[in-house]
Amino acid sequence: MGPPPNWADNLLIGIHEIDLQHRVLFDVVARLELAISSDDKWSAVHFALVELTNFVNIHFAVEEALLRLHDYPDMEAHVAEHRKFCADLAEIKGHSIREDISVEMTALVKNWLVSHIGGADRAYVQHLRSAAIVYVPVS
């Protein structure tokens, strides 16, 4: 299957603030990977997971507000994906508490981000572009 993906410019969706937030998510996951590999494992991992959870909540709130503001027709499905990811992240946090977290778990996070950005996020960008709500350059 190969190594999990890292941030790449092909993940840009064309909305500057959202693109910046997506990059930050990948940066935080990279810090989590380093923490898992560190000697001071538990506290570093816990801090990275708290940081990831907090930023995910902020990012999802911003994205969902944007979709709500522009009456995105697939809002319910998009939010459901967010909620499922939050539940998966909570499960990963449970593993960290039991100290059985692995770098492979961060691969799941990265793969979800790539899939979500490439699918659900690009779909709402297409909606915003086609409705002429905002100008989003074609990538």
From TrEMBL:
The entry's keywords: Iron, Metal-binding, Oxygen transport, Transport
CDD domains on file: Hemerythrin
Short name of any one Pfam family annotated for the protein: Hemerythrin
InterPro entries in alphabetical order: Haemerythrin_Fe_BS (IPR016131), Hemerythrin (IPR050669), Hemerythrin-like (IPR012312), Hemerythrin-like_sf (IPR035938), Hemerythrin_metal-bd (IPR012827)
GO MF term list: metal ion binding; oxygen carrier activity
Highest taxon above the source species: Bacteria
Domain Hemerythrin-like residues, every copy: 14-125
Family: Belongs to the hemerythrin family.
Name this polypeptide is given: Putative hemerythrin-like protein
Organism: Sulfuritalea hydrogenivorans sk43H
